Amino acid sequence: MTQPVLDVRGLAHAYPDGHQALFGVDLHVHRGERVALLGPNGAGKTTLVLHLNGILTAGAGSVAVSGLPVTRSNLAEVRRRVGIVFQDPDDQLFMPTVRDDVEFGPRNLGLRGAELDEAVDRALGLVGMQEYADRPPHHLSFGQRRRVAVATVLAMEPEILVLDEPSSNLDPASRRELADILRSLDVTVLMVTHDLPYALELCPRSVILSGGVVVADGPTPDLLGDAELMASHRLELPFGFDPRHVGPPGASRAAR
């Protein structure tokens, strides 16, 4: 087995008020995988994600990205390798134009001139937003802003793209467009979501985090089809939705 691109071992974390959020989490994700991180509110999902690029530091255990430990001395490189797209795109978009936002990260890495322009154009092209490069982000729709937020991370050419509730507040067309974009990317994806049909559509593998520990890890259809597992961890599919009757993640609509 090749080295995981994301290697979390025995990760534990307690907040200053004494609340223990993680109790020895193990998670291994390999290059090119798309993995959904599922679990009820308060399960520790956000705490886990914030350890992946060093926003939080481990109380015990370790996190490594392609063999590079997530430690204070490695933060700059770790944050280039692990890009987090937050639930609210307005938390990431703060510059006068779309182009300014997307070039912010690579500019801080030292890119200039044609190399910087190429990185920005490539990232905007991946999310279909090139024609909006000179627009103010606040003039865009919510779905367009989310795509620009993804581009700000892709411009850094990360090894891992972490998405926090990517489908939230999107209309059906924007939801589908984002799904098509995520399927097209040549990058490892970890998607934190309560949208279980979206997880099934995009992620062949899911991990359920509950009470600060991993309680299940396996093929998404198997986990979502386990009624006892789902009920015991407060996960519910939409009424009438049967995961056994949905095509495999990544399948084209024409093939379903």
UniProtKB/TrEMBL annotation:
GO molecular function, one term: ATP binding
Gene3D superfamilies reported in the protein's UniProt record: P-loop containing nucleotide triphosphate hydrolases
Ranges where the ABC transporter domain occurs: 6-236
Localization of this protein: Cell membrane
Family stated for the protein in its record: Belongs to the ABC transporter superfamily.
NCBIfam families the UniProt entry points to: cbiO
The protein, known as: ABC transporter ATP-binding protein
The organism of origin for this protein: Nocardioides marmoribigeumensis
